[in-house]
């Protein structure tokens, strides 16, 4: 989903200041990599992008990613690949994910009716939801085209 990376970065600076954490070059570089990614990055991909600008150890990468998640500025995903992926959190932009089991590509979709429906269904069982996760696994368009047999399944 498209997010305003500049705004998120401002909020991150504010969050750091509020918690008496120095806005180090390393922290800002990790945050920028996530905020301006436009896709769901693994920690390794974040680390590769950051390395082009500043030297950051793996521990700092993970700690900063954790910090972004706890600050509510990024979302952590587990798409069953054995590692996590991160995306900037856009308030009010609820969306779901389709994950290709062949190439790992993540496609997003958003639907207001679906979001309302999930809230309604939860209410019906007297549940008060604070968040949910919907993941659809299958084959993306290019993998279907690359393997016409798979499409029939
Ligand atoms: Zn695919
Ligand atoms: Zn997403």
Briefly note the CATH topology name of the largest domain.
Arc Repressor Mutant, subunit A
| Structure classification | alpha+beta
**Uncertain residue segments:** none
The portion of residues assigned to helices is 40-55%
Q: Mean pLDDT, rounded to whole units?
A: 90
Q: Which small-molecule ligands are present, each listed once? A: zinc ion
Mind summarizing the main beta sheet? 3 strands, antiparallel
Give me the number of helical elements: 7
In CATH, what is the homologous superfamily of the largest domain?
Answer: Winged helix-like DNA-binding domain superfamily/Winged helix DNA-binding domain
What is the spatial order of strands in the main beta sheet? 1-3-2
Name of the level-1 CATH class of the largest domain = Mainly Alpha
Characterise the protein shown here.
- The protein has 153 residues and is an alpha+beta fold.
- The chain folds into 2 domains: 5-88, Orthogonal Bundle (Arc Repressor Mutant, subunit A), CATH 1.10.10; 96-152, 2-Layer Sandwich (Dna Ligase, domain 1), CATH 3.30.1490.
- The chain is built from 7 helices and 6 strands, in the order H-H-E-H-H-E-E-E-E-H-E-H-H.
- The strands form 2 sheets. Strands 1-3-2 form a 3-stranded antiparallel sheet. Strands 5-4-6 form a 3-stranded mixed sheet, with no helix packed on it.
- Helix 1 packs antiparallel against helix 2 (25-35), helix 2 (25-35) crosses helix 3 (43-51) and helix 2 packs across helix 4 (58-70).
- It is globular and about 50 Å long.
- Bound molecules: zinc ion (2 copies).
